[in-house]
Amino acid sequence: MHKLKPLTPLGSHTPRVDRIGPFEIAETVETAFASVAARNGQEAAVISAMAQNHGLDLPVAGKAAQAGKLAAFWISPSQWMCAAPHETHELLAQQLKATLGDRASVVEQTDAWCRFDVTGKKLCDLFERLTKADVRAMPPGSACRSTVEHLGVFLWRTAEDQMVVLGPRSSAASLHHALVTAARSIA
Amino acid sequence: MIINHPLLGPRDAQEFTYLGDAGLMNRPYWLSETALQQFHDYLYLRENPAGEHRELWFHEQGDRSWLVVTRNTVTHEILKVELARDVALAQKAANLVQEPSQ
Amino acid sequence: MSAVSTQQVNRLSGGLVDRGQPLSFRFDGQSYQGCSGDTLASALMANGVRLMGRSFKYHRPRGLLSAGSEEPNALVELRTGGRQEPNTRATVAELYDGLDARSQNRWPSLERDMMAINDRFANFLTAGFYYKTFMWPKAFWEKLYEPIIRKAAGLGRLTGDADPDAYDKGFLHCDLLVVGAGPAGLAAALTAGRAGARVILADEDFLLGGRLLSEAQPLADIAGADWAGQVQAELAVMGNVRILPRTTVFGAYDHGIYGAVERNADHVAAPDAGKPRQTLWRIYSKRAIIATGAIERPIAFENNDRPGIMLAGAVRSFANRWAATPASSVVIFANNDDAHQTARDLQAKGVDVPAVVDVRPDAPEIPGIELLAGAQIVETAGRLGLRSVTVRMANGKTRIIPCGALAMSGGWNPNLGLTCHQRGRPVWDGDLHAFVPGQDLPVGQHVAGAAMGAMSTDAALRSGAEQAGEALADLGFTVPAPELPKAEDAPVSLTPFWHVQGAKRAWLDFQNDVTVKDVKLAHQENFTAVEHLKRYTTLGMATDQGKTSNVGALAVMAELTGKSIPQTGTTIFRPPYTPVAMGALAGRAVGKDFHPTRLTPSHAWAEEQGAVFVEVGNWLRAQWFPKPGETHWRQSVDREVQQTRRSVGICDVTTLGKIDVQGADAAAFLNMMYANGFAKLPVGKVRYGLMLREDGVAYDDGTAARLAEDHFVVTTTTANAVLVYRNMEFVRQCLCPDMDVQLISTTEAWAQYAVAGPNARKLLQKIVDPEFDISNDAFPFMACGEITVCGGCRARLFRISFSGELAYEIAVPTRYGDALMREMMAAGEAFDVTPYGTEALGVMRIEKGHAAGNELNGTTTALNLGLGRMVSGKKDCIGNVLSRREGMNTDDALRLVGLKPVTPAQSLPAGGHLMAASGPVDAAHDQGYVTSAAYSPTLGTAIGLGFVKGGAERLGEQLRLVNPLEKQEMLVEIVSAHFVDPEGEKLRA
Pick from C255, C694, C738: which is nearest to B2 by CB? Predict the structure, then answer.
């Protein structure tokens, strides 16, 4: 194990958790991300390779999928974002590339993003103050890219009462501020 | 405005970046004898009608697709939305049929 | 002044106010009591206050005209301190305990306003007086006339304090938006809610019901307000219906988008901590129903603006809903049957109605009330409030009737503002004698109830249900029609009547003080087109947008021109329907939250070092790192440069854009993007790349590192990261769709540091794990590779240099960036390592002659930059063809050069222009300009980069650098742009 101690996107050694009224906003660092883009004409091959090797059915536009520790959501035509626990999959990009080979371009995305898991019953009341995406029309298993206070983000509905927000890591503090402020507005 | 994205459904135009006339997809061949003139026309003589217009929009805060949006610039009515890549591929295919030599 | 008046002398019985919840409030320092359910207007009325403001121009005493958001007169300053809010309509200010309001536009007091002298000079202040009276002498305008006019005119005052409150923004989606919760809106929402559609019902009022709250007539066997309450209760428990009271839908935008402001905390003294005062909603609707009701219009007659003269429907609202009357005796003046209902309701509440003056000779009788049919009101009396009206009877005789208030009605106008926001033009309805919405409604918009001309309660209910049915059927819903109660269904009975002939001062627009005489003057001076009329008289241009005045003025103009009203024209409305606070539009994006902030991976560490930061786009970058004893930024920057050039320095360069480019055609794709070639770049090597715009102008530069045959990582400048990515996607999707290439940004994924200086390698050898050989032989200039550092952390190493020194850029996953910086600084202690900021970075790149944003300024070509040979003629690329244009390739084209002052102590002004050593200083003799300048601690002199005509051939020549704005002139010498290490030996060491 190397000696570089990681910092969280909010600049601490331990992830931050805020509890505001019915909401919990948790900075989450335990996910590795990698983008998978099918090479030209290889979309079907990538989908079947992912199903065969990882048991994961890559989702259609607007959707996310999960199989065991591995999850994926659609981000662009023929491109997905894959996610897995950092502890076991720090090298997720390499692991996926190993099984997909020349069928896909795989890029490590782990630290491109800060991740906040927002949990609470009135989730949609919170997010309608943050994003123009129609969050009430996003059942669990949905994902989309939109904006929150001028920041480009991914919104990934993982459960009825949970939305995962991925924002640009460098703006973690601004995104966190936006989430916390909106939660206070309605808590 | 709302742009009905072919893959994602209706999305606020605020998520998009506007480029302009979709004629920018018809980039001339660089070695043609009249390349200089063609590139001049391609770049500077773009359509900007009051009325129906095919234009390019980039879904910057979305799936990063370039779209060809057919829009009435007077009423803002949007008549058609296509993935630009599909349009470009179709054009390439059509050009190959017409000019197999190029 | 502060004696409490507890006498609600004009409070009636009944109504929708809660006498069990008394509320104290103040108006102009005087304390009063009202009830929960009151507005400021109704509470003042109940307390016998008629005088509430002064008019805009003539400072005439004014009281309430209306009971709603169309109010032109009763504008007050609400609250105090940072929350002080001018021009608040008392009719929509919900009363709360402790409310503090003041009248405006008067001095020293509302009763004795010195500026009322304006009224005496009314003859000089008619329409267009601005343009006529103050024309001469010209110099007097700015110094004398305008300051005086500015002082006299205007309404409320802004507070000078910052607004302490927060405003939210949000986004709502629905199948059907219903604007207005009167009978039509409620029926529409009920229909749609029961059909299962996603419904938003918004109303500006704090109670739902609209006109139902103001009418005494029941719906079948239930009071209107009770029926509204029942519907509200049913809607409230539907999961698919959202009710937004206190919410004004102020604008209709493209494709079913509506803007709305919800007043979350305007009805309390201050919002709770962390809670918004207002919320700006952007509503995405598939369909919308505009059910905004109708607005009554006044009649113009002599002195029709005295406090106590009100709209008849408003008087009825105050009596029925708020249990308040403007006076104990009220005369009615009307041209229609509807106003007779006001007489009946007042009488039922015990208010004396001495007479109903109806201009119609055949007006119907009202049992128990004297009807003066075919009569008109020709004069009123009462300086600060109405005392009597003078009636000219049908037989020509006049009669004076003492009264405290007059309820007037010229009929009702559909409230169609939201139908016009997409250029929709209302059309004239000859039966209603009013404009109704035209056929050119915004996409998805329907109109119901009085807003579309369905004037009776019954018609409104039915049209609401019908329109909801139609709108939802479009969306594929099955919509059963709801059972609606049978309600009042009287036809509109009205004889058009706009103004009493012969009146000298008869107000049309109360808020902007426009009279019938002003319209006549406009006509006389040929401003007859309706848009001219508006601008010449300012009619309809006050904060109320002429809600009560536009149609009346059109009617007067029509009469003068001998045309019909529709021939004369119509004015359309623009957003916002009522004024929207700036704070609501700004939302949370205020102060330091105006835009997001981006922090670099070493930010916390740099803060610990006391770094001074600079905003670069949204990024905060360390500009320099002052050491103890350094008092001037130059000391820090000079030291950082010297320490780096002498030994080693470290700079956070994470902000550069990074784009991952992969695919079988990745190299071919980069060949298309960059002017220079990448096909032959070996794996494990980096190459500088220059991007052009299609017009041949240089656009961005960076490096591309080839990590595998089919894998590159390219960098962009910090400023252009987003644009370059967008352009790459354009080329990939639109121009080269058959290329096999995939892109994704990785800017934020990697923390990247430049390590520069003669000891850079030695420092890195302590960081890079020993199995990776980074000696000059194994890892030469422009090498790149994937390595590990600090005992196994994944990293990327690039041997590239912006400073001109032996330099590397090293990248690790961002989470380890902070730790890597600390490790490198510790490892560099032995070498006297220094962190350096963007200033030192800039100085060193100028010393090295590297172009940056100042040189790639959107006007310069590769040739100008001295990079002309990079534009490959062997391949196509963006900008290739047009960069070969004749005019961009002349012999005397601008070339990048270095510049040095002839007198070394002088500093060079960037932006200065270059002229021949002698001769004229003008544009025609321009030789070029200075783009970048700095003090070079390495050379001990100021240096600069700039563009000079034919520059490459002119080394050693002296030119004059001129800066006429600051009267600077100095001699400079043209030198090579490479001040430091021109042969590049250090880079390769």
Answer: C255
Which part of chain A has CATH 3.30.1360.120?
A: 17-29+112-186
Contact C882 B36 (CB under 8 A): yes
Side chain identity at residue C856, one-letter code:
L
The count of other CB atoms within 10 Å of the CB of residue C775 is 9
* pLDDT value of residue C481: 87
R_g (Cα) of chain A, nearest Å: 17
**Does the distance separating the beta carbons of C793 and A39 come in below 8 Å?**
no
Q: Which residues in chain B are closer than 8 Å to A132, comparing Cβ atoms? A: 12, 14-15
Residue from C550, C584, C586 nearest C570 by CA: C550
Contact C894, C928 (CB under 8 A): yes
Number of H helices, E strands in chain C: 22, 49
Tell me the C-alpha distance between A130 and C154, whole Å.
38
Residue C4 has pLDDT above 70, yes or no: no
- Cross-chain CB nearest to B58 (options C284, C443, C729): C729
For residues C468 and C189, give the distance between their C-alpha atoms in angstroms, rounded to a whole number.
7
Render pLDDT for C353-365 as a digit per residue (tens, 0 to 9): 999 999 999 999 9
For residue range C45-90, list pLDDT tens digits in order: 999 999 999 988 888 999 999 999 999 999 999 999 999 999 999 9
Tally A–B CB contacts below 8 A: 33
Residue of C nearest to A30 (CA): C815
Interface test with A, best of B1, B3, B4, B11 (most A CBs within 10 A): B11
Write out the residue limits of the CATH 3.30.70.1520 domain(s) in chain A: 31-110
**In contact, C806 and C580? CB cutoff 8 Å:** no
d(CA C662, CA C667): 9
B46 min Cα distance to partner chain C (Å): 14
C 688-747 residues inside an 8 A Cβ radius of A: 710-711, 738-740, 742, 744-747
Q: Does B101 score more than 80 pLDDT?
A: no
pLDDT at C113: 82
**Nearest beta carbon to residue A152 from set B9, B14, B61:** B61
CATH for A31-110? Answer: 3.30.70.1520
Domain locations in chain B as residue ranges:
2-98
CA pair distance C136, C133, nearest whole angstrom: 8
Q: Between chains, do C790 and A4 touch, taking CB under 8 Å as contact?
A: yes
Contact A132 B15 (CB under 8 A): yes
Taking a C-beta distance cutoff of 8 angstroms, is the pair C615, C655 a contact?
no
Structure tokens at C881: 């063809």
CATH topology of domain B2-98: Folate-binding fold (3.30.2270)
The residue whose two tokens read 């003859």 is C123
**Counting beta carbons within 10 angstroms of the beta carbon of residue C770, is it exposed (0 to 12), middle (13 to 18) or buried (19 or more)?**
exposed
The three-class DSSP label of residue C616 is: strand
* Chain B CB contacts of C257 below 8 Å: 1-2, 12
Element (H, E) at C389: strand C388-392
Question: C272 CB contacts (<8 Å, ≥6 apart)?
Answer: C265
Nearest to C445 by CA among C289, C577, C574, C293: C289
- What digits encode the pLDDT tens for the residues C198-213? 999 999 999 999 999 9
Burial of C429 (0-12, 13-18, 19+ CB in 10 A): middle
Interface contact C536, partner A, CB < 8 A = no
Q: Does B60 touch chain A (CB under 8 A)?
A: yes
Nearest to B88 among C729, C734, C885 (CB): C734
Report ipTM (2 d.p.).
0.98
Candidates 3.30.1360.120, 3.40.390.30, 3.90.1150.10, 3.90.1170.20; CATH matching A17-29+112-186: 3.30.1360.120
pLDDT at B99: 56
